[in-house]
């Protein structure tokens, strides 16, 4: 299906959105329209990339795998050419999550694919998968959702639209195929070793999941669909999957010596080399979690992405809920967080055009302002380090890895020294912009150090490259000797990272 810029410009009432899933086995593109809060799927594309096959034992992605991925993205770019960046969300999962040279792939992708690539954690992947399922098919009671991917398998128990327990295990049909069924070889011993290893991986979550319990089990994505299609085609079942069906299918597959020889009703050519490893993982899940029956559902990560994009367009952002949850959990001084947040955004709005900052930068600044004191829960000494550690390692639903790292980085340097060498390398954010956000957060916190709503007068700032001029009413500032001293100290700290803070109205005794 071809999309034109004219189509999209005339779609104000029912906007077009697109989701791209950079999986370990295949890359997927889905285009949809939002109609009355619901999603109408219009177009799908799939490119078999087998990215996980290019990940070596040192977690370095091969040049051949990178080229396959870039070729697929160039084809997606053609379809997405009329789309605005905010209408497309691109999610990368296990392989790029693990690859040490993922930044290389993303950097090279920028030249052919003009949409930002977000690498998400396994927990976040599981949460989005569940959202796709929950929006696709309503169910009031608790259910278990299993998604077997190329490099990892996600397990979620949820009730209604709320996930209750999330887990991502590093067992996938591509990686298992390479480890246990190399070159497509099939044997009883290979099956048993693969099943045992998968059971060991699932042992860590089995008790917790069984204690929560469920009334329904659903499987999503290609592996479960392939298994379901085969057992239905062979007459083992009319629709649902049970352990006896899986064991029967295993015995059927053992009649062959190699996956390349498989000629089975319901099995597509591109699934031949993955069916044994996927089946082994599914058998292990049934055994460890004591699953009685599983049904396939045609919704997963991509649908979850689309529904979350729809929610954001309607100003419902799961990330805001995650921030509020963290504030409650760590008993943050909400009044102070609100003061710092208001000041930070007021400063941001005066310099964002000159510094080329976007809404995503404003979001990160606001979240950091709301969470910079989470580390007080540990100790007030080195609070910036404690807060950053918590934010970098917490489960924050809705955040991709770089968004979470950016918030943690802003908080890490909200006071004391800024160590430029410790600022991470980002793919989605530029270093000068990160430094600028750090400066804005530091000023907002410094200006609100008295924790009073009636303290600050009107403040304005003007910006140039690596420079900020702070304008405060001189008579008021003359009375704030402590604040003047703090501002003078801040000037010294920022000069160490080649940033110049000017404050023309600082009282003369404090000027250098």
UniProtKB/TrEMBL annotation:
SUPFAM superfamilies: Actin-like ATPase domain, HD-domain/PDEase-like. GO terms for biological process: polyphosphate catabolic process. It holds the Pfam family Ppx-GppA_III. Keywords: Hydrolase. It comes from Rheinheimera salexigens. The lineage of its organism: Bacteria, Pseudomonadati, Pseudomonadota, Gammaproteobacteria, Chromatiales. GO terms for molecular function: exopolyphosphatase activity. Residues 30-311 form the Ppx/GppA phosphatase N-terminal domain. The keyword Hydrolase applies. Residues 318-491 form the Ppx/GppA phosphatase C-terminal domain. This is Exopolyphosphatase.
């Amino acid at each position: 299906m071809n999309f034109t810029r004219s189509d999209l410009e005339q779609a104000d009432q029912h906007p077009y959105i697109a989701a791209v899933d950079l999986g370990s086995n295949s890359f997927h593109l889905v285009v949809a329209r939002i109609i009355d809060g619901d999603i109408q799927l219009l177009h799908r594309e799939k490119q078999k990339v087998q990215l996980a096959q290019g990940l070596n034992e040192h977690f370095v992605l091969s040049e051949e795998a990178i080229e396959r991925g870039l070729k697929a993205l160039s084809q997606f770019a053609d379809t997405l050419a009329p789309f605005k960046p905010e209408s497309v969300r691109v999610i990368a999962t296990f392989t790029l999550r693990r690859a040490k040279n993922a930044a290389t792939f993303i950097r090279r992708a920028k030249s052919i694919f003009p949409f930002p690539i977000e690498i998400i954690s396994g927990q976040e992947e599981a949460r989005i998968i569940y959202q796709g399922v929950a929006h696709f098919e309503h169910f009031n009671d608790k259910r278990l959702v299993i998604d077997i991917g190329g490099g990892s398998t996600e397990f979620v128990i949820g009730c209604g639209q709320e996930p209750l327990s999330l887990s991502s295990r590093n067992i996938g049909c591509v990686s298992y195929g390479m480890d246990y069924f190399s070159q497509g070889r099939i044997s009883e011993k290979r099956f048993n070793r693969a099943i045992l290893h998968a059971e060991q991986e699932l042992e860590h979550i089995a008790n917790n999941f069984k204690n929560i319990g469920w009334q329904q089990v659903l499987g999503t994505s290609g592996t479960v669909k392939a298994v379901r299609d085969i057992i239905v085609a062979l007459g083992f079942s009319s629709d649902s999957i049970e352990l006896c069906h899986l064991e029967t299918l295993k015995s059927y597959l053992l009649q062959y010596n190699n996956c390349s020889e498989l000629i089975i009703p319901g099995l597509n050519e591109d699934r031949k080399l993955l069916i044994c490893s996927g089946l082994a993982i599914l058998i292990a899940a049934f055994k460890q979690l004591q699953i009685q029956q599983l049904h396939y559902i045609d919704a997963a990560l991509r649908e979850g992405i689309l529904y979350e994009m729809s929610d954001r367009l309607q100003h419902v952002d799961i990330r805001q809920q995650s921030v509020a949850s963290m504030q409650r959990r760590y008993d943050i001084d909400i009044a102070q967080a609100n003061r710092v947040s208001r000041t930070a955004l007021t400063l941001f709005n005066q310099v964002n055009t000159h510094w080329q900052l976007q809404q995503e930068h404003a979001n990160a600044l606001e979240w950091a302002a709301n969470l910079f004191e989470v580390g007080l829960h540990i100790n007030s000494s080195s609070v910036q380090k404690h807060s950053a550690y918590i934010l970098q390692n917490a489960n924050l639903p809705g955040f991709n890895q770089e968004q979470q790292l950016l918030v943690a980085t802003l908080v890490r340097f909200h006071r004391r020294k800024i160590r430029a060498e410790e600022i991470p390398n980002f793919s989605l954010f530029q270093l000068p912009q990160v430094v600028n956000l750090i400066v804005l957060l530091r000023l907002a916190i410094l200006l609100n150090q008295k924790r009073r709503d009636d303290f600050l007068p009107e403040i304005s700032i003007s910006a140039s490259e690596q420079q900020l001029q702070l304008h405060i009413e001189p008579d008021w500032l003359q009375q704030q000797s402590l604040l003047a001293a703090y501002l003078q100290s801040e000037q010294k700290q920022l000069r160490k990272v080649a940033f110049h803070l000017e404050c023309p109205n600082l009282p003369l005794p404090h000027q250098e």
